[in-house]
Design brief:
The chain is α/β, with parallel strands linked by helices and 345 residues long. It has two domains: 147 residues, Rossmann fold (3-Layer(aba) Sandwich), CATH 3.40.50; 184 residues, no CATH class. 37% of the residues lie in helices and 18% in strands.
């Protein structure tokens, strides 16, 4: 990937939390932004506190999920932003669509939006905006691998947590009927075994065995994106990069994380996105436009419903999944926009 030179300092977003846990997907997004610049020591800027930066002028690609702390918006005038792959979440839209914020957006339009919902909200407020998709679609420029192994990864697949009596009874039935198998799955999913976790693992098996053979569920590796916060920012970026490389070599990835699924598309790794159709608007508002790029299996009423042809009732360890190609024009536009910004003095 050809990186661009600029005389201005460059920044990359990080995410500091009070919980002690982070979503490593935030760092996968930042790696996608970082790859456009030659600066190997960018200034780290906390996404939730961009208003507090007071250093010299810095260029920053503003891709990502905004915002847990909307009171800290808009960003500092010391930041020269490129708004691309930008998402306004439901919890922050009142502040981010305020008159003050709209005036700020208009100074930096057009705004490239990660999802159609964000685009439509901004257009309704008179801001020039377009659907850009997610910048992680550009990761194939730096991390694609033509060598695929035989590994299948389940990355934070949606875990049913039914409260209704019938699914719970079915989970208990499967637990007793297939105890040894459920125990293995429980350890893979949760890295420990308790009765409550065994019930959840049994619910997982009851649902996912509808579309995946036992050999897939038992032989896959299970990864989570919500992790205990490492000690340094460099460690977070290193772990995020390890995951990207892991996905680039995979035979198949099954996930409910868009920042796993989108990099897989970019790197030509077969991927299936599991979509919970009953998720809250805070979560579903991220997906409008993006969901169309994936091979989707929907979860509804304890059933997995494929939205593409899987060629059989259940996928086995040799089943071939072919990704859609409709992301390619979106990826190319992202590359064009970011290269232009990176080369600007």
């Amino acid at each position: 990937m050809k990186k661009e030179h600029s005389t201005m300092k460059t920044g990359v977003m990080i995410r500091k939390t009070d919980s002690g846990y982070i979503n490593i997907g935030d760092y996968i997004q930042s790696i996608a932004a970082r790859q456009f610049f030659t600066n190997n020591s960018p200034i780290y800027l906390d996404r939730e506190r961009l208003n507090s930066y007071t250093g010299e002028k810095v260029k920053l690609i503003m891709n990502g999920w905004f915002l847990f702390k909307p009171e800290n918006w808009p960003p500092s005038e010391c930041i020269d932003p490129l708004f691309v792959s930008f998402h306004i979440n439901e919890i922050a839209k009142e502040k981010l669509l305020s008159d003050e914020s709209i005036e700020y957006f208009k100074q930096h339009e057009p705004i490239g939006c990660r999802d159609m919902n964000t685009k439509n909200m901004l257009i309704d407020r008179g801001v020039s905006a377009y659907f850009s998709g997610c910048l992680t679609l550009s990761l194939g420029e730096s991390y694609s691998s033509s060598i695929k192994n035989n590994k299948i990864y389940f990355v934070d697949p949606f875990l049913p947590n039914e409260k209704k009596i019938i699914p719970i009874l079915k989970a208990i039935f499967f637990l007793f009927k297939r105890f040894n198998l459920i125990k293995i799955l429980c350890d893979k999913l949760f890295k420990s075994i308790t009765f409550k976790k065994l019930i959840r693992a049994s619910m997982f098996y009851f649902v996912y065995s509808q579309r995946f053979e036992d050999e897939v569920l038992l032989n896959s590796e299970y990864i989570v994106h919500i992790i205990k916060e490492p000690g340094s920012e460099n460690e977070k970026f290193e772990y995020a990069e390890q995951l990207i490389k892991l996905y680039s070599n995979a035979f198949l990835v099954v996930t409910s994380r868009i920042h796993c699924a989108l990099p897989c598309l970019a790197m030509n790794t077969p991927v299936i996105y599991i979509d919970n159709v009953n998720q809250s608007k805070v979560s579903s508002c991220r997906l409008d436009g993006i969901l169309d790029l994936f091979n989707v299996i929907s979860y509804k009423d304890s059933k997995l419903l494929p939205q593409f042809s899987i060629g059989t009732d259940k996928l086995n360890i040799k089943s071939v999944v072919t990704n859609k190609n409709n992301y390619r024009p979106i990826k190319q536009n992202l590359l064009d926009v970011c290269y232009k910004f990176a080369s600007k003095s």
